[in-house]
């Protein structure tokens, strides 16, 4: 059986099998593949979520969601298993870190859950509370990034924690700006539903700027339209 990596394809018309879609887990895996120069090792297939049930090869798998890695005849569906399988079988360059604080920072799930709660909110009375909850989670990340040395979590090079955190922050930045007109990386952004001036998270802004200068991240980011399409129904 050939070595194949199945990633979520675009949701934009006609692009489902041609480019990466909005999926922080798929982007994480693709970043790892690029960092390890494995694009020639694995056949990368983008799966159109709208037509995946008619995709003959994907239907042969036990999986229903992407990402999925098939390597040496074994199927891996869990994104952590995929990451560490790649690290074990392709150890150069090493991406794993044993820095507890770095791994904790990379594993932050709060930005996405608090962002979703804020964006989906329909109760004006809860608007400020949910915005502040999102800002609290972002503030914790910003503070932790401020204590790290170098442009990335572990210094000068992208590692596993970056591959986890960066897609989340990019998604949050695009979605918050699109739905709430709130750019948390620039001075004096304004939230449409509040008279307060939200904080600016400079460390996150610098982190994203550094990442955008690295093709491993910038070339794996889905288009802003992909992320906007996911949240379009919540734009008021």
Characterization of this structure:
By secondary structure, this protein is α+β, with helices and mostly antiparallel strands. The chain folds into two domains: 4-89, Glutaredoxin; 100-234, Glutathione S-transferase Yfyf (Class Pi), Chain A, domain 2 (Up-down Bundle). The protein has helices spanning 24-35, 56-59, 79-89, 100-106, 110-120, 127-146, 160-180, 202-212, 215-218, 224-231; strands at 4-8, 43-47, 68-71, 74-76. Strands 2-1-3-4 form a four-stranded mixed β-sheet. The radius of gyration is 18 Å and the shape is globular. The protein starts with a strand and ends in a 5-residue tail after the last helix.
Work out the helicity level. Answer: 40-55%
Radius of gyration: 18 Å
Query: Beta fraction of the residues?
Result: 5-15%
Low-confidence stretches: 188-195
Instruction: Give helix and strand order, one letter per element, not per position.
Output: EHEHEEHHHHHHHH
Q: What descriptive keywords fit this protein?
A:
single chain, about 240 residues, alpha+beta, Glutathione S-transferase Yfyf (Class Pi), Chain A, domain 2, 4-stranded mixed beta sheet, globular
Outline of the structure:
The chain has 236 residues and is an alpha+beta fold. Helix content is 46%, strand content 7%. The protein is globular and about 50 Å long.
Question: Which SSEs are present, and which pair or pack?
Answer:
Elements (H helix, E strand, L loop, with lengths): L3 E5 L15 H12 L7 E5 L8 H4 L8 E4 L2 E3 L2 H11 L10 H7 L3 H11 L6 H20 L13 H21 L21 H11 L2 H4 L5 H8 L5
Parallel strand pairs: 1-2
Antiparallel strand pairs: 1-3, 3-4
GO molecular function: chloride channel activity
InterPro entries: Glutathione-S-Trfase_C_sf (IPR036282), Thioredoxin-like_sf (IPR036249)
Protein name: Glutathione S-transferase DHAR1, mitochondrial-like
